[in-house]
Amino acid sequence: MTTTAAGPTAGPTAAPDTAVVSFEDVSKSYGDVRAVEGLTLSLHPGETVALLGPNGAGKSSTLDLLLGLRHPDSGRVRLFGTSPREAVVAGRIGAMLQSGGLMEDVTVAELVGLVVSLHPRPYPVGEVLARAGVTQIADRMVNKLSGGQEQRVRFALATAGANDLIVLDEPTTGMDVTARQAFWATMREQADAGRTVLFATHYLEEADAIADRVLVLHKGRLLADGTAAEIKARAGARHVSFELADAADAAPLRELPLLTSLEITGGRVRIQSRDADETVRAVYALGLRPRDLEVTALGLEQAFVAITEAEEARTA
Ligand SMILES: Nc1ncnc2c1ncn2[C@@H]1O[C@H](COP(=O)(O)OP(=O)(O)OP(=O)(O)O)[C@@H](O)[C@H]1O
Questions:
Q1: Low-confidence spans in the chain with pLDDT less than 70
Q2: Domains of the chain with CATH codes
């Protein structure tokens, strides 16, 4: 498990200029706020990469820098060995951002048609509409769409042509389950075709299921970079849970070292521990007789919380 992009799990090694994306010691502040700090990373063809971080961690700022919508105060951002602007103009990037309204006085088909007509390597309009699940609403005015429908239209615009890099900021917010599944199926196809997909999300289960690489940002810095499994392993903690015949017996457990949380509901004890083996030994050493003992790894969401909270405590 690495904490920077320079380590062994940072993806295939490649010279920065052959990478799809390279950030070289990039920093960006807004007044006193350090939004991105010393960010160095490379993304490679065919990778599906999730960008995670608490509110204000710098995810949107990172994507804005990547797309050339903002410029770094220091450091350098390169896409395909060129500037972000050149890569965007060459039609190599498809983006789906949170901000920015859609053009209003047009139908869905007209808007998609316009974006397709401007793309250097366009797909047929019908195919773009169908892929995003908006064929049924193609004649609807854009300003009459629901939030979820708007999001599908943004998805259509981001996949209007053959892009080499697809950048998505909170792409599935507002989408229903069907739209969400169709969306990720399409993104998988894109990655399988060798494209790079980078998405920022607060849905950690999506990152766990979809991404083959996870970046965790915290206060503008890259805190972790690895597969979801590596991030979970790095958090180190495990869940230990068991039944006790008498819940009152659980009181001494509160004194155990290594616990990050302890919850007792009915006769069931649920512990989060930094060392599950040691905790289980300690439970027996207390003379308890646990039944139905389970030890499980943390999910990505819990690992993410553990890693970012540890960093908060370290930097407080
Ligand atoms: N235009 C701006 N002017 C001033 N401060 C800004 C601006 N844009 C972002 N910030 C600040 O920069 C920091 C990083 O913000 P950013 O939007 O990149 O984070 P984020 O990880 O995308 O957050 P969220 O998950 O809430 O969308 C935050 O402290 C935010 O308040």
A1: 1-17, 99-100
A2: 16-233 (3.40.50.300), 237-297 (3.30.70.100)
Please write the tens of the pLDDT for every residue from 19-64: 999 999 999 999 999 999 999 999 999 999 999 998 899 999 999 9
CB 192, CB 203: distance < 8 Å? no
Say if residue 153 is exposed, middle or buried (CB neighbours under 10 Å; 0-12, 13-18, 19+): buried
Q: Return phi, psi of residue 92, to 5°.
A: -90, -10
Ligand 1, residue 200: give the atom nearest the CA. 22
pTM of this prediction?
0.80
Q: What is the pLDDT of residues 184-209, one digit of tens each?
A: 998 888 889 899 999 999 888 889 88
Task: Output the CA 112–ligand 1 centroid distance in Å.
Answer: 30
- Determine whether the shortest distance from the Cβ of 37 to ligand 1 is under 6 A: no
CA 61–ligand 1 middle distance (angstroms): 6
Q: Are the CB atoms for 157 and 96 separated by under 8 Å?
A: yes
Strands 221-226 and 165-169: unpaired
ipTM: 0.97
**Mutation to probe ligand 1, out of 61, 73, 304 (largest number of atoms < 8 A from CB):** 61
**Residue type present at position 282:** A
147-158 and 177-192 helices, crossing angle to 10° = 10
Torsion of the alpha carbons at 315, 212, 27 and 54, rounded to the nearest 10: -40
Determine the Cα angle at 203 with ends 197 and 204, to 5°: 85
Q: In angstroms, rounded to a whole number, what is the distance separating the alpha carbons of residues 124 and 116?
A: 8
| Residue owning the nearest CA to atom 6 of ligand 1 | 30
Residues 6+ apart with CB under 8 A from 106: 114, 141, 142
Euclidean distance between CA atoms 46 and 66, whole angstroms? 17
Which one of 26, 37, 52, 60 would you pick to mutate in the ligand 1 pocket, going by the greatest count of ligand atoms within 8 A of its CB? 60
